[in-house]
Amino acid sequence: MNVIEAYKPFEIQEIELTEWKQRPVKNNFFEVVLIKKGKGTQCINYNESLYKKGSIYLLPPLKCHSFTIEKTTKFVFLKFTDSFFKSATKINIDRNEWFKEASYILSNYNQLPGDIIKNEMDRNHLSNLIEMILQESRNYDISSVNLVTSLMTSVLELLIRNIKKSSYFEILKDSNNDRITKMLTYINENIDKTELLKVENLANVFMMSPTYVSEFFKKQVQMSLREYIIKAKLKLVEIRLLNSDFTLTQIADELGFTDVSHLSKTFKRYVGKSIRDFKNDGNYILLKRNVCA
User: Fold this and answer.
1) How do residues 258-269 score in pLDDT, each as one tens digit?
2) Which of 173, 162, 271 is nearest to 221 (CA)?
3) What are phi and psi of 118, to 5 degrees?
4) Are 130 and 55 within 8 A, CB to CB?
5) Strand 30-44 with 56-59, pairing
6) Residue 38 Ramachandran class (φ > 0 left, ψ -120 to 50 alpha, else beta)
7) Domain formed by 2-164, architecture
8) What superfamily would CATH give domain 178-292?
9) Is 117 helix (H, G, I), strand (E, B) or coil?
């Protein structure tokens, strides 16, 4: 077994297994998994899909995933860690931009099984990036920081591109309405821009009458537009509370809450516990899919 860990901005592990053993789960952002060889079955939320050499997966930071190994498998786990986002002063990056991109991936990924990559060009890109990070990590020192950070940024961009190409939203299974998928993508991309989420703007962007926007949205998503936007914001609040050192004032300002009191009351109403209790428990609630409970 070859285990490689670097303090920042990532943890990477290359390991060959004949039998899967559940690993400790922390509230990091997520892990990218590359199958270098072998075959078997991946399970997330009690749903299964076959894996093979070259498969690439995204694992949520929850105890609801596993692999059944049919043929000896070499895994590479690339983990985006919370420590990076809590202390990035020594790394030349836009910390807030990194955090937003990682948060977008975690909050919009629907924790279903299957390969995250949707075309072979991106698969090759991502495989090459992971291999470069793996090689660099074997002789990791201060001179590696900027290079690895750049590679990790490219990994983020590829993941975002592929998530946007897929229906990673919780909509009706029998809905094939392309407009609602585009609307959900638009909302989640602009969740921190209150003006763009108003009914009038959505009506203009999607060429609908203002009176029909809310009715259309609720019919497709089985949730009011207002509730969806609030919950989407609160998922990001959960991520910030568990994976950053942002203050409540910063979180409230960024996500369009009137003040900390408004944020706290809204959080308690929808999450079911106070922000203090949530942080003490250290577990996602809104971000956790029901089948993970």
Assistant:
1) 999 999 999 999
2) 173
3) -105, -5
4) no
5) antiparallel
6) left
7) Sandwich (2.60)
8) Homeodomain-like (1.10.10.60)
9) coil
